[in-house]
Amino acid sequence: MDKLRERAAALLADGTVALVIGYEEGTNKPRPLFCHTAEDAGKLIYDSRCINNLAVYLTKKELMGTEKVAITATIPVLRSILQLSVENQLNEEKILVITVTEQGELKEFAGFAEIESYIADFQLKLSGKEQEIIEKLEGMTREERFEFWMKELSHCFKCYACRAACPLCYCTKCIVEENRPQWINPWAAPLANIEWHINRAMHMAGRCIGCGACGDACPLGIPIQLLTRKMMEDLGPEFGFVPGQPSKNGNALSTWKADDKENFIR
Amino acid sequence: MNTTNSEFEPKIVAFVCNWCTYAGADLTGTSRLKYATNVKIVRFPCTGRIDFMLLLRAFAQGADGIIVSGCHPNDCHYTSGNFHARRRWITFRGLLDFMGIDVKRIQYSWVSAAEGAKWADVVNSTVANIRELGPYTEYKKVAEYLDKEDYNG
Ligand code: SF4
Ligand code: SF4
């Protein structure tokens, strides 16, 4: 931790970067910290409780000016950075990525290519609880699944925290704010909720990197991360994607293969 | 499901592409082939233009079944619109099924401009299938407030 603070302070002091995005101690759990001065860097922490996906800030115009920005990245953040880079949302020159290895060593990446080989060793795994829900759902009849999701989604009050927390939800105008035509009604009601979640999932198809930030952000604990997660597991083999490994060949829905397999079109 | 299946007339919306299936359906008519009248056809420039939201909206507005149809692979007027559409359908279908939405109520097909008889067959078999499944009450229940509120989306 000291090494991270020292390094961040040095980067800020000598002007290599104008901002270091990291974590600090919060009320109940760590929260994002934005260090503009070497002094701020003294508050930096990095441990397993740091779960916010900081990559979400890398597409924010108000933070990403002309100066270089450093970010302390966990594995999900590294994955997000790669996916954002594949989608041409990041300027590699302007971002300095730092992580702390499992051995507690500070590691600075020379470029995104290095991140790619680094995360290749880290498999994306579902948590026990997520696995449990997915298995439960798979064992249900279709009607029961519908009931399960309707019950879960009926709690959703459209705060859009799930969207705000997702590093890959970066459109400046979201379909839910589109009102000509208004595809998704803004109020929280069964149909409007189900349409919102189907849209969110469809827009994440083949892009979601499985960080779980959306589900963690939901104040009502709706396991919405499973919608995109399940798609990732199913579509991965189908379209040649490896869950958690961003693909350079475009996202699942912007590309196609002449021999894409299906068995339901007649 | 109070309506017995023989009394129930399924409402079906067909989203079809202009170049193949629409022309195919036209041929069904000009060939004077009789087929079920339960289908309302909506014509699109390409299957690639058929947004998944349109399908959801059809269900929300009371459709019991949906047909989505366009040019066979490699026959797209725009070269790859139907390949893109197929990807989207594969993805969408998996998601709907995971969420418990009845994917059996959506019939996807390729019908070319020369396949008038196939169109009649796709429609007839879809109608028979939906008649068997009965009215799509679950989704209608979810969409109920649309009737109650002053809604004109
Ligand atoms: S898990 Fe959720 S927050 Fe993370 S990339 Fe996927 S949709 Fe976005
Ligand atoms: S964070 Fe939860 S309550 Fe808020 S919009 Fe997303 S699912 Fe709904």
3D architecture notes:
Chain B: Residues 12-134 form the F420-non-reducing hydrogenase iron-sulfur subunit D domain. Chain B: This is Heterodisulfide reductase subunit D. The complex is a heterodimer of chains A (266) and B (153). With 266 residues, chain A is an alpha/beta fold. Chain A has two domains: 2-119, no CATH class; 128-239, no CATH class. Chain A is 36% helix and 9% strand. Chain A has nine helices and five strands. In chain A, strand 1 (19-24) and strand 2 form a beta hairpin. In chain A, helix 2 crosses helix 3 (112-119). With 153 residues, chain B is an alpha/beta fold. Chain B is built from six helices and four strands. In chain B, strands 2-1-3-4 form a four-stranded parallel beta sheet, sandwiched between helices. In chain B, strand 3, helix 3 (81-98) and strand 4 form a beta-alpha-beta unit. In chain B, helix 1 packs across helix 4. Chain B is globular. The relative contact order of chain B is 0.23. The model of chain B has no long low-confidence stretch (mean pLDDT 92). Bound molecules: iron/sulfur cluster (2 copies).
Helix content of chain B: 40-55%
The radius of gyration computed from the alpha-carbon positions of chain A, rounded to a whole number of angstroms, is 20 Å
Q: How large is the share of residues in beta strands of chain A?
A: 5-15%
Oligomer type: heterodimer
- Whole-Å distance between the termini of chain A? 60 Å
Strand segment count of chain B: 4
User: Structural class per helix/strand content of chain B?
Assistant: alpha/beta
Q: Low-confidence stretches of chain B at least 5 residues in length (pLDDT < 50)?
A: none
What integer is the average pLDDT of chain B?
A: 92
Helical residues, percent of chain A: 25-40%
The helix/strand series of chain B, from N terminus to C terminus, equals: EHEHEHEHHH
The domain count of chain A comes to: 2
What is the CA-CA span between the terminal residues of chain B? 28 Å
Bound molecules: iron/sulfur cluster
* Structural class designation of chain A: alpha/beta
Radius of gyration of chain B: 16 Å
Number of helices of chain B: 6
Overall geometry of chain A comes to globular
* Overall pLDDT confidence of chain A: 93
Topology, number of strands of chain A: 5
| Total count of helical runs of at least 4 residues of chain A | 9
Pfam families (chain A): Fer4_8
InterPro entries (chain A): 4Fe4S_Fe-S-bd (IPR017896), 4Fe4S_Fe_S_CS (IPR017900)
Domain 4Fe-4S ferredoxin-type (chain A): 199-229
Protein name (chain A): 4Fe-4S ferredoxin
